[in-house]
């Protein structure tokens, strides 16, 4: 933690940093959209959906929801989390087996890897455990990889499927799976949700929630400040965190007792909120 953050924490009576950019399930704010997205994650997981798909813009809170889900699953579910998988056919299986803590050898052929994977699924099933593969940043997967994943979901024992997939990614993921040549894949998606940005009222609640969670005993951000934060961030949680963090630094350095609209304007005027400015410029274009 930076020395600057420690200074504003002392200034505003906080016991931890409220607006970290690192996903933290302990700070999870249940906006209506996040609650619905998580409900669909649970629905897909516990009803045996072959494929569950959750999409949303960068910084919307998808990874935070995943980490919360991982904390809730019981011992009867084996989770493999894969982020930014890439490569060819055999590479995908290596990523998957590595996520499931299975050792592979460089000389293993695709057939060897698939047999190892299938054996693992059967053994887990025999022990009463279901296997779930979660792909984060799944918009980076190509058509061939998605088709390979669909074939994985065909592995079954009698009427029971041995594998479930959860795909989480940016909006391009939904565009990808709607391609005519991925119709069979799309038909296996039994649960899906698109997580949208927060509206102004929700952004206000979000800011106050995180401040209270960090130990604040009073409202530090004025209504004008939260309104300006919403306008500058378009309701994207990661951008809200970044701008609010800068605002606390500015207010502390100016020895202010609260963050007001002028504080937000000063942050924006100085250009330190680069990610938000870039997003707005791209939106205009």
TrEMBL record:
Pfam families: AAA_22 (PF13401). It comes from the Bacteria. GO terms for molecular function: ATP hydrolysis activity. Transmembrane segments: none annotated. SMART domains: AAA. Residues 48-262 form the AAA+ ATPase domain. InterPro entries: AAA+_ATPase (IPR003593), AAA_22 (IPR049945), ExeA_AAA_ATPase_DNA-bind (IPR052026), P-loop_NTPase (IPR027417). CDD domains: AAA. This is AAA family ATPase.
């Amino acid at each position: 933690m930076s020395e600057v953050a420690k200074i504003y924490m002392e200034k505003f009576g906080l016991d931890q940093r409220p607006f970290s950019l690192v996903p933290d399930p302990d700070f999870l704010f249940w906006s209506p959209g996040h609650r619905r997205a998580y409900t669909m994650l649970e629905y897909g997981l516990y009803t045996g959906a072959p494929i569950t798909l959750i999409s949303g813009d960068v910084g919307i809170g998808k990874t935070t929801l995943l980490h919360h889900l991982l904390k809730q699953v019981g011992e009867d579910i084996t989770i493999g989390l894969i982020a930014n998988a890439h490569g060819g056919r055999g590479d995908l299986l290596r990523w998957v087996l590595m996520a499931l803590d299975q050792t592979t050898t460089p000389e293993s052929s695709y057939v060897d890897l698939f047999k190892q994977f299938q054996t693992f699924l059967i053994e887990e099933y025999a022990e009463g455990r279901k296997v779930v593969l979660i792909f984060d940043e799944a918009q980076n997967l190509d058509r061939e990889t998605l088709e390979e994943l669909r074939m994985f979901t065909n592995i079954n024992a009698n009427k029971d499927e041995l594998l479930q997939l959860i795909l989480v990614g940016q909006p391009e993921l939904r565009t990808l799976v709607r391609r005519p040549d991925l119709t069979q894949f799309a038909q296996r998606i039994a649960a899906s949700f698109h997580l949208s940005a927060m509206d102004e009222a929700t952004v206000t609640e979000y800011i106050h929630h995180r401040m209270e969670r960090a130990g604040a005993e009073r409202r530090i951000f004025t209504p004008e400040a939260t309104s300006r934060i919403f306008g500058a961030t378009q309701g994207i949680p990661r951008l809200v965190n970044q701008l609010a963090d800068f605002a606390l630094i500015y207010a502390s350095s100016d020895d202010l007792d609260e963050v007001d609209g002028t504080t937000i304007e000063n942050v924006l005027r100085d250009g330190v909120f680069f990610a938000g400015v870039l997003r707005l410029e791209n939106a205009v274009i």
